[in-house]
Amino acid sequence: MKHLCIVFLSLINFYASAQNASLDLQKKPVLNSQVIAEQWGKVPDGLNTSYASSNVRFSKDLPPSVDKQSNWETKAWKGEKVHTQLLLWTSKSVDNISMEVEDLKDNQGHVIGKENITSGFLKFVMTDEFADGCGHRKPQDFDSSMVADIIDTRKTALSIAKNNTQPVWLSVTVPANTLPGNYKGTFKIKADREYKMPFSIVVLDKMLPPASKWAYDLDLWQHPAAIARVHNVTLWSPEHFDAMEKYYKMLAGAGQKTITASIVNEPWGHQTYDDYPSLIKWTKKKDGRWTYDYSLFDKYVQFVMQCGITERINCYSMVPWKIAFTYFDENLQKEVVFEEAIGTPAYNAFWKTMLVDFTRHLKQKGWFDKTYIAMDERPMKAMQAVIKLLKETDKDWKIALAGDYHPEIENDIDTYCIASKFQFPAATLQKRQQAGKLSTWYTCCVEPYPNAFTFSPPAEGIWIGWYTASKNMNGYLRWAYNSWTKNPMEDSRFITWPAGDTYMVYPGPFSSIRFEKIVEGAQDFEKIKQLKEFYLKNNQTVELNALNKALAMFNIADLADITAEEMLNKVKPLLNN
Description:
With 577 residues, this protein is α/β, with parallel strands linked by helices. The chain is 28% helix and 26% strand.
């Protein structure tokens, strides 16, 4: 899919000076067994409990270094999802630990029902380190460790072994119809006795729209074949579609607006663990005519739309990393590979026939206006040749590109996602916004930060939303939503990129700390947008200037010297005044 990033050697150089600082932030002190035993020896008997920041990954093997907090207090907008962590740790084993939540109530008796509260034991997964970022890697060559990331909302009880810490993830989604007020409740942990952990949420008289209406454009690329594999069902069977439904609804709930649709086999050269088959069957008939079977494409796109992802269909790709388009040849009775270079007469003839037929089909379905031919970064002449062919086929074809910033073709790109090294010129960005074109950015295996690896500081997911707002862009792209490794619930490391690079959620589906923080960043983007409009409309220049000053702080290079959490702690209170 990816890794358009691999060709960006200039990006590697851009970040080289900052990588050492990033690695210093990632590395943890190596403690010997005696020191660890001494730390556990200082832990009071019984089950210890405390609320803690949701922006910290706590170690399983060490007692947490926190000031105990028996109460959690936060603020939220109507429609917002807020999080915290609850830590459980013990120097002696504790069996059969379970959790219970209750309704939240204010002094007037108004209620946030417990069905809006979720809790999950955090599970640990193997990660590694950034090192050189992109490139083939062997696990033994990298520092690896276990980190908390999987939010297991299905496990109802567990035991904690001697000298272990178990984090719990607690989320509250404030219903849109909640009346403003201070809502209080208690989170109960049942173990050797019952532990009561009170918490309260001040609901403000401000409203977040539903995720489907968010301006923030999140694009996490989907991988349907991976779902079939982990659920052990036949690809494209009814059981496969049943399995996919929960994943796609979870993604729609994060504000995803784009369907990832493969119109050729292996559009990214099989760089993932699972296959990436085409949704369209290409056939060359005995008489030389071409036919295209769109039945699976139609079924899949309609299915994803029913799950709530409806705005765009990004088709990959006329411009793959390796020119190798497969089709079935009736004369030869076998699969054949077309390998002619982009821009050649043979390439143009091969694709022109398909594009004419595809255009007709999309218009018949009523999908043409929301369908894009999507490209990763390729040589300029290749991209210009594809753009020319598309516009000759139908002047209204839309194009999406993820790659470097190229002023030569910017006007032809309807959805332009640039690498983090680049920025849109201010005048260009304004022109694109006026034309209704999307301008977004992405990170991949190149950037040590901000990122969403399993070792990345969780707050970087939120930081991404703030950075997007600060640069007046529309959103953020990252591959991939669910291109899982061989054993994703155990080991997030992959053979070519830093751990966690290939997926954001886990088979189940289970959410992750990383995914929840990306969504939190999207929520903050919506808050920022709404507040800026409100302050402008009401001439509240003091508040507007304070928010703009906060946004001006967000520059990627600064993450070499200050953590994302430290920056966010300074500015997030501005959203809840």
